[in-house]
Amino acid sequence: MFASGGSAWSTGLWQTRAMTGTFVEPQPTPLALLLLGHGADSGSERGVECPGDLPAPSDPDLVARAARARAALGSRVYILGHHYQRDEVIQFADVTGDSFKLSQMAAANPEAEFIVFCGVHFMAESADILTADEQRVILPDLAAGCSMADMAEIGQVEQCWRDLEAAGVADVTVPITYMNSSAAIKAFTGRHGGSICTSSNAERSLEWAFDDDWQTSEKKVLFLPDQHLGRNTAVRDLGMALDDCVVYDPRKPNGGLTVEQLQTARMILWRGHCSVHGRFTPSCVDEVRERVPGVTVIVHPECTYEVVEKADVVGSTEKIIATIAAAEPGTSWAVGTELNLVKRLALQHPDKEIVYLDKTVCFCSTMNRIDLPHLVWSLESLVEGTVVNQITVDSDTQHWARVALDRMLALPGPTASRD
Ligand code: SF4
């Protein structure tokens, strides 16, 4: 199964011990899924169509074609591969990582004329913001968006700010925006005195916004666009009560909140979530503990508060990778994050038992839109002198998004790990 729309995937394509034990048919997701591709909201964060004349997926020469094009381009091209990408794409990546690390790596390679970002649209935008003007960022499939980023559209966020102004609290509200957001939302954050955060530094970002002590601070935070990362960080790391957080629903007048709720809340959480991590439920944790005795459950903080509370370890994709790499041979891990990464971890660590947290396998459909045909097409086009699917962010948006990103980079040193 793919989250956020898309077709089914054979559950037999990869196996760990637990998964070979029981073959589970994909189940329909209970979550509302965004429609992607043609006919989707053209004002949202992602691109909506791919104009390419793609090679057939069945072409047996695809790997050789990608390798030839890659070799012909040499140091003119730098290929970034997000952790959630397919193996067929990752094999051609010059570097793998999370979105922020990849953008920084692109900026650290100014000799690369072309940055091919195997990830999703907001990541390519971030790379364009952080790289030099002459570097051109390419997203092999323009339909590779992100359902979470799409849940915060700039017009909605500006309306939210007007609601905060009407409630008399905008001047004490600091926007903190997760990397998984459009360039327009990042720029909004920069304009309004806020900072970007990643899943690794969300705690530090909130501490900064609250002047190091949320209990004595007069500030409040508007957290965009992932309500779960915001809630998990505020409650688990900063020690707020769940009641200190309210959820602003952009589809409702005043976000579905009273003026008094906006005035008393400490965390105003945008109603957005990741359709992949939002699939995990507390019962997934209970079931895997029964299925795999002695298992350690490690999840991403984009999971719901209820799931995170039941897990043993919580951390970003980089932390999940490092924790499992450092684990003792023979240990068992249930991992609550995107399936391509879990599959790769299982293959990389055959001395450990690594299972997917849910019995129903689920990939990020938009990440999976970047496949070998799209990569071959974009690389061969570059060899022929045609730049396809370039992602550009206008200079004003770049400027203010960069302000918000620089505030994150200037945050004080790391806080102790919570895990
Ligand atoms: S895994 Fe979630 S947050 Fe990441 S790209 Fe997919 S939908 Fe967006």
Description:
The chain has three domains: about 60-145 and about 370-395, 3-Layer(aba) Sandwich (Rossmann fold), CATH 3.40.50.10800; about 150-270, 3-Layer(aba) Sandwich (Rossmann fold); about 275-365, 3-Layer(aba) Sandwich (Rossmann fold), CATH 3.40.50. Helices cover about 35% and strands about 15% of the residues. The protein is built from 17 helices and 15 strands. The chain has helices at about 15-20, 60-75, 85-90, 100-105, 120-130, 145-150, 155-165, 185-190, 200-210, 225-235, 260-265, 280-290, 305-310, 315-325, 340-350, 370-385, 395-410; strands at about 1-5, 75-80, 95, 115-120, 135-140, 175-180, 195, 220-225, 245-250, 265-270, 295-300, 315, 330-335, 355, 365. The protein has a five-stranded parallel β-sheet with strand order 7-6-8-10-9, with helices on both faces. A four-stranded parallel β-sheet has the order 3-2-4-5, sandwiched between helices. Strands 12-11-13-14 form a four-stranded parallel β-sheet, with helices on both faces. Helix 3 links the parallel strand 2 and strand 3 (about 95). Residues about 5-50 and about 415-419 have low confidence and may be disordered.
Question: Helical element count?
Answer: 17
Give the CATH architecture of the largest domain.
Answer: 3-Layer(aba) Sandwich
Q: List the domain count as a whole number.
A: 3
Radius of gyration: 21 Å
Widest β-sheet, arrangement of strands: 7-6-8-10-9
Low-confidence stretches: 5-48, 415-419
What's the number of extended β-strand segments? 15
The CATH superfamily of the largest domain turns out to be NadA-like
Percentage of β-strand residues? 5-15%
